[in-house]
């Protein structure tokens, strides 16, 4: 079970902030944070004793069971040490998060702003705690823990997995543990948690600091490199990952109070306290005036195009007498022209004041490729979705939600042969499986498995709103990501019959699926064979 130790000798009921330390693999709530033998070398105790903060902060340290595979004998002995008697019996990450969340809430964490300082697996645990808190609609004290989070400092946290867990399995250094399973490189659950925090932190005003090791641990493993240590968060509240000349075990043990990570924690706490002070200052009530959205139209064919303040016109690259003739003017449009023009379009969009209302009247693969460039953490973005014979809808896709009675995916896997690639067929508007299969055969694609995602009653109106579209995109990405991890394909081939807004949302998560080609359907050409459109990883 999780245990929360008070570090501050005096916990004022009027304190403005709780600071919670969360250790990592093989750690415990006290010695993880010490460079020496006693409290005089302890990071949490330094903060608790800091006269600048005084009674304004309360410092805690969370303990929970883990196991550390870095060294066969020495670390196994530590797993079973008296300091951490539960070591080696660790719960899976989501279960541990619920246990820890309840423990935090029971001692009053969430009654005021809270900041987490985390090492290694502790960072994943905190993200999972915040995820569980966000969904605890029937447990308000749990919800408050997440709602009051104002900052997270990550130390060598493997946001996108660690090579260590793979090496444990590959070389049998020690028997795999539940905890190292949680950090296997590009684990689907881990990647889904990465996406969630990447989007959640900016929208909930959570300061995010991160540091990573530059020295390898014995046996020569750099446990968390810069890429894996990047939480993916951008914006004014996020600090880019900072390298430190420490290994994975030293990085959480500052030698003195001039240590860079320790000074980072001071800066983070100061920012949060300053914001809390500003929030508590009475101000005259001002009527809220919604900021009007800047409207942008991206089009690659002319017929039926919408009006907008900013128009990004790609129609010169296509035969655009009407929207049914979608052929490019020459074969290099997909591989040479658009990979240059679309980043320019994104630079224009990102230069506009937020929020932005984006209408995409373009090829499906163009919408998808725009999504790969316009990540969800770059500010509020609304999608204008066109529906046949009805008024356009403006979709807010910031948070996923499956409405009551709304359609969810039905997945089907089909074995095709001995190829090195995977195919994904997406059918929310109509069943595209037969056309995709014929196209795969005609194009001679080396596909070993085909994954088909179908809604129970596909139609042009089967996706209800932006939250539903976001939920479908997240669920689909998580499912196919598991297949990508298992099969390790050279390329994913995507055939879709879906609204361009869903294609855009799928593009925002394309980096989780590896090299991908998106195929276009030849409307108006008298045939039903897809042809290659935009692609990544070429």
Question: What structural keywords apply?
Answer:
seven-stranded mixed sheet, 2 domains, 538 residues, Rossmann fold, alpha/beta, 15 helices, single chain, six-stranded mixed sheet
Quick take:
The chain is α/β, with parallel strands linked by helices and about 550 residues long. It has helices at about 45-50, 75-80, 95-105, 120-135, 140-145, 165-170, 180, 190-205, 225-230, 260-280, 340-350, 365-375, 435-445, 465-485, 500-505, and strands spanning about 5, 15-20, 55-65, 115-120, 150-155, 205-215, 240-245, 295-300, 310-315, 355-360, 380-385, 395, 410-415, 420-425, 445-455, 490-495, 515-520, 530-535. It has a seven-stranded mixed beta sheet with strand order 1-3-2-4-5-6-7, sandwiched between helices. Strands 13-15-14-16-17-18 form a six-stranded mixed beta sheet, sandwiched between helices.
How is the topology of this model organized?
Layout lengths: L2 E4 L10 E6 L20 H7 L7 E7 L10 H6 L13 H14 L7 E6 L1 H14 L5 H8 L1 E7 L7 H9 L6 H4 L6 H16 L3 E7 L12 H4 L12 E3 L15 H21 L13 E6 L10 E4 L24 H13 L5 E6 L2 H10 L7 E5 L7 E4 L12 E7 L5 E7 L5 H11 L3 E9 L10 H22 L4 E5 L3 H8 L8 E5 L10 E5 L3
Give the class-level CATH name of the largest domain: Alpha Beta
Number of domains: 2
Overall form: elongated
Return the average pLDDT rounded to an integer. 83
Provide the CATH superfamily of the largest domain.
Answer: Alpha/Beta hydrolase fold, catalytic domain
First CA to last CA: what distance? 48 Å
CATH architecture of the largest domain: 3-Layer(aba) Sandwich
Roughly what fraction of the amino acids lie in strands?
A: 15-25%
Largest sheet: 7 strands, mixed
Number of helices in the DSSP assignment: 15
Per the CATH scheme, the topology name of the largest domain is Rossmann fold
Spatial order of strands in the largest sheet = 1-3-2-4-5-6-7
Radius of gyration: 25 Å
